[in-house]
Amino acid sequence: MLKPRSTATRELVRLDGLWRFALDTAAGDAPWTATLDTPLEAPVPASYNDLFVDSAIRDHVGWVWYQRRVRVPRGWAGERVLVRVDAATHAGRVYIDDTLVVEHVGGYTPFEADVTDLVRPGEEFRLTIGVDNRLSNETIPPGAVTVDERGRKKQTYLHDFYNYAGLARSVWLYSAPAARVDDITVVTDVDGAAGVIGYEVVTSGDADVRVRILDAAGAEVGTADGARGEIRIVDVTLWQPGAAYLYELVAEVVQDGEVVDTYPLAIGVRTVKVEGNRFLINGEPFYFTGFGKHEDTAVRGKGHDDAYLVHDFELMKWIGANSFRTSHYPYAEEVLEYADRHGIVVIDETAAVGLNYSIIGGLLGGPIVPTFGPDQVNDKTQQAHAQAIRELIARDKNHPSVVMWSIANEPDSGVDESRPYFEPLATLARELDPTRPITFVNVMMAPVGTDKISDLFDVLCLNRYYGWYVDTGDLEAAEAHLEAELRGWEAAYGKPIIMTEYGADTVAGQHSVFAQPWTEEYQVAYLDMNHRVFDRIESFVGEQVWNFADFQTAVGIIRVDGNKKGVFTRDRKPKAAAHALRSRWTRLER
Ligand code: GCB
């Protein structure tokens, strides 16, 4: 699904700002059929949870309603009119006046509806969006709603970040011609000094397609006719990590010799390949430095914010990070576009986090519940997971910054049932995009020998916490255990290995001369120990620290106002580890 853009043939109205807002408990039976009777207003984009000083809103389980009036620009007569929601977490319903126009499940990918027949140019309509924050064993990510002895509903979940909900990304009204570009797929290759751009344009309506490529200065460097084909750019400038270069592919729909739709897409020419135990970008070994991140800030929750976007990337540049993982869900498209423009490499992840019912019991010594089964992860979960993979790849396939798909974080891959669950999903991801390596992120409880699915993937991505969850405070033992495990993976698979998570909770300002967990000194020593081991492992191709910044989680006895493994605090102040990482990453040669 193409991101809405303003072009010579399309217009765009961003519907961000304050909307009327109400919980389902206050909104009445059919809240979309009238003006919402509510004193509350909520900003879009933002998660709603932390806005109001009201735990009934923060802890709400179920639907909430957003509503505003929208005027269709009067010049849109004869155009198709569409409403697009960049994300509704976790399920959304859109009403134009009294009519339901689209429903969508999956909290981090966009959806839209053609509403032309329900609205009129120059006139207003009532736009109501319902958002449901509930997770079940059949959603991605999974969760469960429980009801306690007092009849209170609670949302529980297995992932370690707060279940922020609402409209955390933009909502758009846009116009587009009936005969238009619906989708573009671009695959790039390099042939000597030339760049080869394979493209496919899907249109609605019967029309011809013309494609032009412009360089960064706007000069035309290639053209082609037809809905699919190949364009060569002689003397191409490659998109490189740290040195982004973007061309613009302009797809035009032509009817009777006239251009009726035009859609520009930023593209970068680069190749990605796994060869033996190397990860190659443009044929050169690439070593990932950086973080697992979160979309998480105070007050706005997961609400997209351009100021934090720019600041986070500046901090990543300062510290010498060349990459990050969109742990644990697809991020706002603005983030990927920014990564494209700034040469930051992305591992792009679905929201399949927490497919592991044994982890909490495993960590806290409680009962171990099986992950796969009719009431846990089942066929419907798998179907939702397949849909999450489809929507991620459909949305992000053209970003040069995206070099690998991660189809899940820390599933229960140590049990036999994980294989029939994951095999078709890995096949699906490869079919949808044969050009990028695929991975899943392996959990500590499924080490080499126990894990049942790593052979299905191209890169071994491991999350390991030796010195934190195990060997707590004992970095000497941690070093030996980490090295032994990594050597086991290397010997068994011969594939590239990335440490996609390693980290220690650290309260900024906590200090000790001893190796005391939770102190800034311990976080530095913990990272140093990991790095010593990584540098001894030949197959190592990357290190992404958990986490870029402190972030909010559900309450629990191992979380102090959230997860404190950030190298930066939640408000982006550096802990001592930030300086230590900067000193390593700005000098690292591998
Ligand atoms: C993990 C998870 C991540 C958690 C982290 C932790 O393995 O992938 O979501 O936040 O550990 O800090 O426990």
From TrEMBL:
GO terms for molecular function: beta-glucuronidase activity. Residues 180-270 form the Glycoside hydrolase family 2 immunoglobulin-like beta-sandwich domain. Keywords: Glycosidase, Hydrolase. Residues 272-588 form the Glycoside hydrolase family 2 catalytic domain. InterPro entries: Beta-gal/glucu_dom_sf, Galactose-bd-like_sf, GH, Glyco_hydro_2, Glyco_hydro_2_AS, Glyco_hydro_2_cat, Glyco_hydro_2_CS, Glyco_hydro_2_N. Residues 14-177 form the Glycosyl hydrolases family 2 sugar binding domain. Its EC number is 3.2.1.31. Belongs to the glycosyl hydrolase 2 family. This is Beta-glucuronidase. It comes from Microbacterium alkaliflavum. The gene is uidA.
